[in-house]
Every structure is written in C-alpha cells, then in structure tokens.
Amino acid sequence: MSQSQQESSPDVSSADATQPDAKVFAYHNPAGGWGALKSVGKHLLHSRSPALNARSLFKLNQPDGFDCPGCAWGDPEHASSFEFCENGVKAVTWEATAKRVTRQFFARHSVSELKTWDDYRLEDQGRLVEPMRYNAETDHYEPIGWDAALDLIAAELKALPSPNDGIFYTSGKACNESAYVFQLLARFFGTNNLPDCSNMCHEASGSAMNAALGTGKGSVLLEDFEKAEAIFVFGQNPGTNHPRMLGVLREAAERGATIVTFNTLKERGLEKFADPQKPFEMLHNGSHRISSHYFRPKLGGDMAVVRGMAKALFARDAAGDDVLDHDFMAEHTAHLQAYRTRVEATDWATLEDQSGLTRDEMEQAAELYARSNATIACWAMGITQHEHSVATVREIINLLMLRGNMGKPGAGPSPVRGHSNVQGDRTMGIFEKPSKALLDALEARYARAMPQEFGVDSVAAVKAMRDAPGKVFIGLGGNFTRAISDSVVTEQAMANCRLTAFISTKLNRSHLVTGEQALILPCIGRTEIDANSAGKSQLITVEDSMSMVHGSAGINKPADKSLRSEIFILTGIAERLFANDELGNDGVDWASLREDYDVIREHIADVIPGFVDFNQRVRQPRGFWLPNSVASLEFATATGKAEFSDDALPQAVMHQRLAKRDGWLTLQTMRSHDQYNTTVYGYNDRYRGIEGGRQVIFLNRDDIARLGFEAGQWVDLVGESDDGVTRRVDGFKIVAYDTPQGCAAAYYPETNPLLPLDHKGVQSHTPASKSIAVRLEASTRLA
C-alpha cells in the first residue's frame, strides 16, 4: 500500500459504543518512574511507527527541532537530549501515527455510524489525508478538491447577511503565524468573532490579572523556580497536564524550597515523583517528595482559603509581627485599606464553612507563606473554572502583594496555561474583545477600518448558532463541540449552521456535528516539515506560559502529499474572499505570506508590541522573552499601581447550596492521565487507579453510604434541568476515593452534557466545569 492508503482497521484498538468496564486498583507508586517509561514504550508501538517516533523525540523541545504539541510549559535554558515527558510522547506519537483515514474509510462508515463511536476510537483511526465534504443525502463524507473546498468557504462567507454571522474559532495548538493570519482574515472580513479555547480555561486569569496588574500574563520565568523559597500550587495537576513541571518542583524540593499544595484531590504528581531521567533512582525504585504540605479545600473553596491566610497575616501584623511588606504596598499598590477592612470583617466560621479547611490549617498555611521571602503562586483550571474564579485569582494576587512577591527573583504570579500556544494565540490578537491599541495598530498597518464591535466568546458563539441559524463556523484546530459545555445544546446549535469547516489533523466528534454543509480540511502537524512551493522548510513560532517566544520546525515527512499547511488554507480563503475587495486592493499579498513565514513575522513586528526584529530574535537559542511590566513593577492600571480587590466571598459555593437539596453533589470534570484536553489517548488513569474504562465517578465513601449506593455500582448522573433541557449521562461506575464530602469527580468530555451553558464564571464567562450540580440514580447497566 502507498502511504496514503494505510488505514487503521475500525476494529483495531477500538472500543464499543458502550465503554468497557473499568478495573479499579490501588496505586502506591510515585508519578513518573517505571510506569512512565512503560507507557512511553506502549505508545511508541501503538503509533505503528516506533522507530520514526523514537527519532522524533530527540528533536522534541530542542532548539533545532519542534515544540511539543501538548502543553505550554517552558523550555530550560540549557536543553538536554531528553526534554520531553510521558504525555509529550503521547502527543507526538498520536500525531505521527502511521494510521490513515482515507476516502475508503469514509465510504465504509456513515456519519450516523461514526457518531456511535467514542472519542478515543474516532481519533485512533489515524491521520486525515484529503479534504472531505459531507453529503447529507448519503450521510457520508466524500472527497473534494482543495480549490473547490476553499471556493465554497469563501462563497458562503460572502453570502452571509452580516460579517458577524461568521465565527472564527481557534485552538491553542495553532502557531503564532497561523493565529495572526486567522485574526487578520476575520477582521478584514469585518468581525471580532474570534472565540478560542482560552474562553474555556484561563480566561479568569487574564480578566483578574489585567484588572489587578494591567497585564493578563504571569511574570514568572522558569529560572524563578530555581530561586523561590516557597511555591504555592492551587487547583493544579501537573503530573498529567504538564508533567515537565514535576522535574522543576522536584529540584525546588531537593534544595529545600517549601511547596504548599491546595487541591481537592490528592494527585500523585504533587505527592512524590520518580524522575525517569535519573538512572540511579530508577534502579533503586526511589522517588522524591514534592509537596511539603497538602491541603484539600472543597470545590470552589480556594478563595476562602486565601482570604483566611490573609486574615491570619493581618492579625499578626496588628499584633506587631513583621509579616507584611508595608514599604512595597505603600509604593506600588492601591486600595489596601478597603481589602483589609473586608478581610478583617470576615468571620472564621464563614471561612471554614466555605473552604472546607479549619482555622488552624489556614493559619498554618499563612505561617508557611510568612516564612518565605520569595514566593511563586501557581494555579490552573481548578481555580479558573468556577463562577467566582475572577475573584479567586484576584485574591491570590492580593496575597502575593501583601509580602511584596512581585518584581523580584523567585516570586510572582504564574498561571500555568494548557495547550502549547494558547498564550501566543491571544498575543497575536485572537480575542473577541480586542484592545483599541490593537485595532489602531492594524488600521495603521493595513490602511483599512477594523470592526469595533466586540465579538462572541465560546459560550456566546453557541448561543448565536442556537438562536440565529445560518452561521458559518470555521475551526482552526480543536474539537469545539467536545470542549464546550452543554453538549446536547451545543451540537444542536452547531447543526443550525449553514457551513461548518474544521482545519484538523485527526478525526473527532466535531466533524460529525454537521451544518447544512460541512468540510474537513486536513493539515500538516507540528511534527512535520512545512515546505513552501519551492521546497523550502518553514519555521513557525510559539509562546509558552513564561512568555518565551521560540521557533519550531517539524522534521518528519508529512503524513500525505495531499496535506496543506494551516497558512495555505487560511491565505487561500483570504485570496478568494477579498479578490474583488470593495477597496480595490485589500493591502495584503496573501501569497507572499504563504510562501515565506518570515513575511508574516514582519507583519507581526509592525503590529504586535514586543516583536521588533522578530525574525532575527526568534532564531537565537531559546528565542526571546516578551517583557512583562509586572517584573519591572510597572502596572498599566487606572492608578498606575497594583490594585487590591475587596470582592465579597460568594454567598455560598456549590456544595453548600446543594447541601439543602437532598441527594445532590458538586461534580468537577477533569482529565484522565491518558488524555490531553479533548484528546483521549487510552482508557487508563494510572495515578488514580483506573484501567480499561473512563465512565467512572469518584465519590467520598461517606457520600456513597449516605446516598444508599455501593462502590462498584453503576449509576446514571442527572444534572440540573430548570430550563427544560434534560441533562443526564448514563452508565458510570462508582469508585470510592479520597475526596471531600459532597464533592465528586469524573472525566470530560463524557460529563460535559451535565453542565448548563449559562453556568459560567462572572466576568470570564468560562464554563464552571469544576462546580456542576448532579444527583445519582441507580443504572440499569449491570456490573
């Protein structure tokens, strides 16, 4: 067979539509270690191209290689030959598989049949290789040429009554160059409808930090972790979501730094870690402790925890203890007194009730913080996916300011982003609420009026498609219908579109939720050589969580000669869309952008602050750092200072509201260890003791007994339906787990149907995926 004809059998490594019964076991080993090495070997073999992928790993996160398509954790200054982790290996082998999804595959399997497959089985079929168009009459995807596909997109966009009927969605895997061209395409078209995956994860971080500090980015560099005396980790599971961080935390722990964790679940990666790159440790089955102290607040209780710490510090300050940095606060902050008044007026009973911790525990955490002269605060989606997430992030910023933990080595805020370039996409202008400065810069560069009206975020995009049919939805990567909340409502909304078009590397559920017309546009992946028409390899760039911008160049031959780059697809749409521009000349030579990505970077340097001499600087080893004003104690706020907030605690977090409703629980959705965002690499969650299945719900033993169930019993999960929508998912196995009473956990995207579209964060509009109201019913499924 030719390369394009190699196809995975639908029966190989696949699950039935009903997922298998998960085996539950007790996991006692550290994170990493032999389990990680075994997993690496398994995924190399599963890719059906183990030799090629093993070679690829030596170029992963290297100066002359490609950036990991997984997480956005920063690269070290002096890279070794093994700058990758277990889940990075999964991301690479998942993309660089030898399996192919051909036209013959789509001829054999209707869309209706494919809808019965689970997420793992869909993506495990392999790489998409040619453009496909949905035929509603046959219920099959059928081949379409590139010119015809791009002509169709341009024609449908032109036919829209308003540019605001176009929705341009971006995944965090898109590189800087693709993101810049995509936002340019949307804004030239006339809309700021640029929702992205940030809307569903760290939007609260950006909203809170912009208000408090004048920037939405963290100020911490990777080197700061080497200098911190204490690292406070909130709502984060690095062992699965960014495992390379474990090596950094381990080194900090080894040199004596205090690592304090606040997380509802005991995550193994934050307890102990065995580094697979340390031969002596591996041979002797050794490991190292990560967290020196581990506190477990109830879901949504982190704001009360941090306020309790602040209350303890203020009490000690009033007693004459030297625990606050008054000089820093006097010179660099505003609104301290309002915050102090709010904190001191909050009683301990309220803080204990909301947080789930005792006063003693919060005072202990405050003491650990007071001992440190340089503290980093890290957080992730355990903080950002609640109704009151913006207020919680601001509370963390308040805590840092109390002891002057900004603008000095080893200290500062560090929101740990998820997907590899989610931060870079926002820097490039992927945002439904663009700043005036960005729009002015675009207008100056292109001599063209830019749309001023704010666009839709991800949740608002679903509502727009639901309430006003006929939209055109273009997805630059990602799996939108599985990433967003309220799956049934979302899929119904997507089906209202006039056209859906997804630029993708692999088959996923969103391709099966078709509008009146639907296209799948397969593209070159991060691991592959992206060459122009003359055969010259192109360089792309990404920005990590620490604001380091560096280059990435694939090393593998593209999966099929029919594949095109993201830039090819986007510029092709633009050429057709603006061929007869009303201005007579749209001001952009789109072909030049496609032929040489250096030209795109010249455009970026003209428009985006911090990118002067972009092409020269990004070719330096490790790239360059985008300056952060917080690091130099400059704050772009109304007062010119870092601003304390005095937000009230929420009236009651979800578990307290549900306490009055007999039988209800607060559910958080989360990833398994064999998963990255919506991509499922397998059915195991090694660190939590799950093998061979995903439809499980983790419950406190007392809750299991109180609700009249037993561990191992099958239940159905029922969500809120006050708006008339029935929300339920069936067939979940109860797993007894060490989680606070009233707090449950299960995997997404399987449980996304339970999350109402309007259950979202105040200000951020991020789906409140860590606080979903559910109750259990005995399932008809037999164990």
How much helix, percentage-wise, in residues? 25-40%
**C-alpha termini separation:** 43 Å
Q: Number of folding domains?
A: 3
Strand order of the largest sheet: 6-5-18-17-16-7
Quickly count the helices.
30
Runs in which pLDDT lies below 50 for 5 or more consecutive residues are: 1-17
Structural class estimated from helices and strands: alpha/beta
Structural account:
The chain folds into three domains: 100-168 and 457-623, Rossmann fold, CATH 3.40.50.740; 203-416, Dimethylsulfoxide Reductase, domain 2, CATH 3.40.228.10; 654-778, Barwin-like endoglucanases (Beta Barrel). It has 783 residues and is α/β, with parallel strands linked by helices. Residues 1-17 have low confidence and may be disordered. Strands 6-5-18-17-16-7 form a six-stranded mixed beta sheet. The protein has a six-stranded mixed barrel with strand order 23-30-27-29-28-31. Helices cover 33% and strands 16% of the residues. The radius of gyration is 25 Å and the shape is globular. Helix 8 runs parallel beside helix 25 (566-577), helix 13 (302-318) crosses helix 17 (359-371) and helix 13 (302-318) packs parallel to helix 19. It starts with 22 loop residues before the first strand and ends in a 5-residue tail after the last strand. The chain contains 30 helices and 31 strands.
Q: What's this model, at a glance?
A:
It is built from 30 helices and 31 strands.
Task: Note the topology.
Layout lengths: L22 E2 L6 E2 H14 L3 H8 L28 H10 L4 E2 L1 H6 L2 H4 L4 H5 L3 E2 L3 E4 L4 E4 L2 H13 L7 E5 L5 H14 L13 H11 L16 E5 L3 H4 L2 H11 L3 E5 L9 E3 L4 H5 L4 E2 L3 E3 L6 H17 L7 H7 E2 L1 H10 L2 H8 L3 H13 L3 E5 L1 H4 L4 H14 L9 E4 L6 H6 L8 H11 L11 H10 L4 E5 L3 H4 L3 H8 L4 E6 L12 E6 L17 E4 L4 E5 L13 H12 L12 H6 L1 H11 L6 H4 L6 E2 L16 E2 L10 H5 L5 E7 L4 E2 L2 E2 L9 E2 L4 E4 L1 H6 L7 E6 L8 E9 L6 E5 L24 E7 L5
Helix pairs in contact: 1-2, 1-3, 7-25, 8-25, 9-19, 13-16, 13-17, 13-19, 22-24
